[in-house]
Design a protein that fits this description.
The protein is α/β, with parallel strands linked by helices. It has helices spanning 28-41, 55-67, 81-91, 107-114, 118-135, 151-163, 180-193, 213-222, 244-253, 269-280, 301-309, 337-346, 353-369, 375-387, 430-441, 486-510; strands at 9-12, 45-49, 72-78, 96-104, 139-144, 168-173, 201-206, 227-230, 297-298, 328-329, 393-401, 408-416, 419-427, 447-455, 464-472, 475-483. Helix 1 (28-41) packs parallel to helix 2 (55-67) and helix 2 packs parallel to helix 3.
């Protein structure tokens, strides 16, 4: 039924099965936006909704159908005459309309859900498919809970559906019960035992209750299926459906093992993932395959060193292939010196070996304190180091006691021309106490004209950047420093400003 036997159709059901995730409902405009994106990606079939479920679903399917061009637009229906009529009405404006009708075939579903026997189910299969085929040329029939259905009965149902006009036969693992070897074997057996099996495309539809949805889908393709039903980000009921992005990239990256192909433009996968996440409010886990935040991120020093030498050492696909701009070497406590040097160069810093060693040691200290180290943190760290180089007076240690009961006390140790000096002072608040303690060691009459604090990045563990401006006898000096401890940053910033002021005093005296 396909021109190329290795061509696999991608049937996206994000708008229908994906929306069934509790809390994942979408507005009409959001569905239309996603449908347009899916069509631009090269998705073959889009299941736009369940027209008989509500007037809103009917409107959505109708509008998606009306706006479609090359994509097949499917509307879902039960094996109920009114459902099929509504589905036909909803998709009739599509260039390529499809009605997707289904009925349960497993013993547990027939007994407890349908309260129907095998003969009644067979009668419903024939009647529903015949009715649907009278409305559109493209009819898909699904055996709900197929993987828990008696094999001989499943064969009879599939045989009758094809004879009644079904062009696609879907074998869902509705409850995520199957495993790859079993699912592949089921397709092979069905194709070999159902008469006229070559008159229809066989399809997978796998749920992820055991974490096997993608593996089962690929196994089904290996067993003869040429359509895969899936969703962006694996969205769906319970543990979700097979993830479209994982199936597409598995076939693309492992062409040696999966000698099949799709028409999906993989460079739009990341965009689609982000948009579905934004619309539904369902975050994508950081370590999610293909589209997760960490899918192309490396923090380990060993991995980063390998990536800097050759990206194939730790990446089996290019980030650009899925729409990610570039690999991310995330700097953290496990990062190595080479990755740190590379990051500094990318930020425009060219440090000599001694300065690099000092910066790397300070970076490691920061990474032990801070969960995420951003570019802004590194810039602040290096700028602080450069601005404090060769200063006469520098901070060695600081301890502050603060709180509602008071008094606020600062104990500080400074290196003054290589000599360690300590002092303790009280103040009207912890910062005032720190500055008073500094004055106790290096007395001066400079006036604090500016004291400003802002966070370098987001989060409660963000570094604070403190800016200080001191003035004395017409001379002005500004200091700035960053540290996860705001009081330490304030002390350092004060010292930077003080040192600059001292240098300017000496220059004035010399002249």
């Amino acid at each position: 039924m396909t021109e190329n036997n290795n061509q696999v159709r991608i049937f996206d059901t994000t708008l229908r099965d994906g929306e069934q995730s509790p809390g994942a409902s979408m507005t009409l405009n959001e569905k239309l936006e996603l449908a347009e994106l899916l069509e631009s990606m090269g998705v073959d079939v889009i299941e736009a909704g369940f027209p008989a479920a509500s007037p809103g679903d009917f409107e959505c399917v109708s509008e998606v159908a009306r706006r479609s061009s090359s994509i097949i637009v499917a509307g879902l229906s039960r094996a109920v005459s009114r459902d099929i009529e509504r589905a036909g009405e909803a998709v009739n404006k599509a260039e390529r309309p499809r009605i997707h009708t289904f009925i349960s075939t497993s013993p547990v579903h027939m007994k407890h859900k349908l309260k129907m026997g095998e003969n009644a189910v067979l009668e419903a299969v024939g009647r529903s498919v015949t009715q649907a085929r009278g409305l559109v040329d493209d009819v898909e029939w699904s055996a709900e809970d197929a993987t828990r259905t008696e094999f001989d009965f499943l064969c009879r149902c599939c045989d009758l559906a094809i004879a009644s006009g079904a062009t696609t036969i879907n074998i869902p693992d509705t409850v995520g019960y199957s495993h790859p070897e079993e699912y592949r074997d089921l397709f092979e057996r069905l194709i070999n035992n159902v008469s006229n099996s070559d008159k229809a495309i066989w399809s997978t539809h796998c749920h992820n209750d055991l974490g096997l949805a993608v593996a089962n889908s690929l196994a089904g393709v290996a067993g003869g299926a040429r359509q895969v039903e899936c969703t962006i980000n694996g969205l769906g009921e319970r543990a979700g459906n097979a993830a479209l992005e994982e199936i597409v990239m598995a076939m693309r990256v492992r062409k040696d093992a999966f000698q099949y192909q799709t028409e999906i433009d993989s460079t739009k996968l990341s965009r689609a993932s982000k948009r579905v996440s934004q619309i539904t409010g369902f975050p994508v886990q950081y370590n999610k395959a293909i589209v997760g935040k960490n899918a192309f991120a490396h923090e380990s020093g060993i991995h980063q060193d390998g990536m800097l030498k050759n990206n194939q050492t730790y990446e089996i696909m290019n980030p650009e292939d899925v729409g990610v701009s570039a690999t991310s070497l995330v700097l953290g406590k496990l990062s190595g010196r080479n990755a740190f040097r590379d990051k500094l160069e990318s930020l425009g810093y060219d440090l000599d070996q001694e300065a690099l060693n000092d910066a790397f040691a300070r970076f490691k200290d920061l990474a032990d304190k801070k969960k995420d180290v951003f570019d802004e943190d590194i810039i602040a760290l290096v700028d602080d180091q450069l601005s404090g180089a060769d200063e006469a007076v520098s901070l060695n240690a600081l301890k502050v006691v603060a709180g509602t009961n008071g008094p606020q006390i600062a104990e500080i140790e400074l290196s003054n021309e290589g000599e360690m000096k300590s002092a303790s002072a009280e103040g009207n608040g912890p910062f005032d106490a720190v500055f008073n303690a500094i004055r106790a060691i290096v007395p001066h009459d400079a006036v604090l004209e500016l004291f400003q604090i802002h966070a370098v990045t987001e989060g409660t563990d963000a570094q604070a950047t403190v800016s200080v401006r001191l003035s004395e006898d017409g001379l002005v000096a500004t200091g700035k420093s960053s540290d996860p401890d705001t009081l330490v940053a304030a002390a350092k910033a004060y010292m930077h400003a003080f040192n600059k002021l001292e240098i300017r005093r000496k220059k004035v005296k010399e002249t």
